[in-house]
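Job type: complex structure
Entries:
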Amino acid sequence: MNKAREASSAIRSVEELSKQRSPVHDLSPLSKLFLTMVYIVTVASFNKYDLTGLFAMILLPLIGYALSGIQVTLCFRKLKVILPFILLVGIANPFMDREIMYTVGRLHISFGMVSMLTLMLKGIYSLLASFLLVSSTPVDELCKSLRKIHVPSMIVSLLLLTYRYVSMFLDEVATMSESYALRAPGQKGIAFGTWGTFLGQLIVRSSYKANRNYDSMILRGFKGEFFYCDRRFSGLSWLFILVLSGICIFMRLFNLPVLLGSVFVR
Amino acid sequence: MIEIKDLNVTYDGKIEALSRIDLEIGDNVKLGLIGPNGAGKSSLFRALTGITDFTGSIEVNGLNVERKNLPEIRKLIGYVIQESDDQMFMPTVIEDMIFGPVNYGMKKDEAVRQAEELLRSLGIEDLKDRHSHKISEGEKKMASISAILMMKPEIILFDEPASCLDPHNRRKIINAINEINATKIIASHDLDLIFDTCDEVLLLSRGKAVKRGTCDEILRDKALLEENGLELPLSLTGRV
């Protein structure tokens, strides 16, 4: 399958995933948004050498994935394009910070290596939490949550339209590159000399299509603000979120692996 | 009731899409709009709904097509766009169907109930939660017509309602159009479809209104049709 079409279909499959039913899907979107933000801020706030403390933070997303029925590997498969960037974030640290922190047998582990691993884990955890949020919450429910916390309507509409525009843009890329490939047999990708025309046409075509979509929206009474999903959620979901946020903060304040270890090793 | 006087539509200041159109369309009329490519059929629809600029005047049920009246005009006129993909921008069929009514103030629960009822009456209730990009062309067309019917318009504009459809789906669309009780203006190259759905026909060519008459008068006039880049409907050629 064409890569652009694959990407567009991946976006849509995440949208389909978000409409399944599970205890996580049924939680209030605002509470999930809140918890994800608390989680990411907590993870980001860990000291760059606190690798053991950070290990325990994997528990929350793993519980979330287990309850939602979404496979953890799916997150990595869908976001494989971003993964190398996350893994490369701290790549220079082992060279900059060579002081030895631990020695395991003959293996010396430097502060730089630990901080690199910490940075990687922070990135991966944030990715896991964000993916769990978007794959268990339909985008319109997320937008409604943003409106509830008073994010301006224009920004939320822009976010929603951009989200929809991305799939449409990718579909256009797919259609154009397929028709290019059909008349350029044996070529790998699009010839460098054609990039300018291709991109120009792509922008013109997708903007025409976006205009036609917009026409169709205003013909049906669109006045600048989307209506968003209006499902009702029980107060229990808030209780659940408060408990989880508490656990999150507890794990930030106390090093759980060390605490557990001290029970067995004295 | 639609009254069009001296309508002109020009694109980029030089391409004349419609020129000096005068037209009156009464209530519950079923008017077919025919003409070769570039005759101005879609431009007429765009002008009627106020999504393209024009000079001259258009009145719909006594309301002038101008900025301040557009919300009301667009409630009166439903426009089934040629490309269903351009019309259906919400993820699922039901979400697309309730988009218009909710924007016009209907409660979401009520809109969903009415949409379900409409889908049932059209015999396409299985489309309800389907993703609009994953259904066939015929289903997309039925879904986009349903989305317009949800707004209960008094006038419906159909732009090539049966293009790209197989004979079975084409017949399904024709039957659905015939069931609708409203003023209908149908633009199509499919003259057999026009014959099956309309009482009157307006022939447009190069942006001008050439002739208006009953289906029999226009669609049986081989010379007139050929002069304007069209052919007799297949059902009248004796080949079918």
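Summary: Chain B has one domain: 2-87+155-237. Residues 108-121 of chain B form the longest helix (14 residues).
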